[in-house]
Amino acid sequence: MAELYVGIVSGTSLDGLDTALVELGADTCNVVRARTTPFPGPLGDGLAALVADPRTDLRDLGALNVAFAEFAAECVLALLAESGREPDEIAAIGFSGHTIFHQPLPPGAFTLQLGDPSTIAARTHITTVADLRSMDVAFGGQGAPVLPALHAWQLGHAEEIRIAVNIGGIANLTCLNPSRAVTGFDSGPGNALMDAWSRLAGRGPFDRDGAWAKSGTVVSDLLRRLRSDDYFSLPAPKSTGLEHFNLGWVQRALAEVPEAAPANVQATLLELTATTIADAIEASEPEAQRVIVCGGGAYNAALVQRLEALVAPAVVETSAAHGIEPAWVEAAGFAWLARARLVRAAGNMPSVTGAREPAVLGGVYSGETPNA
Ligand SMILES: Nc1ncnc2c1ncn2[C@@H]1O[C@H](COP(=O)(O)OP(=O)(O)O)[C@@H](O)[C@H]1O
Ligand SMILES: [Mg+2]
Question: How confident is the model at residue 128 (pLDDT cuts 50, 70, 90)?
Answer without folding.
Answer: very high
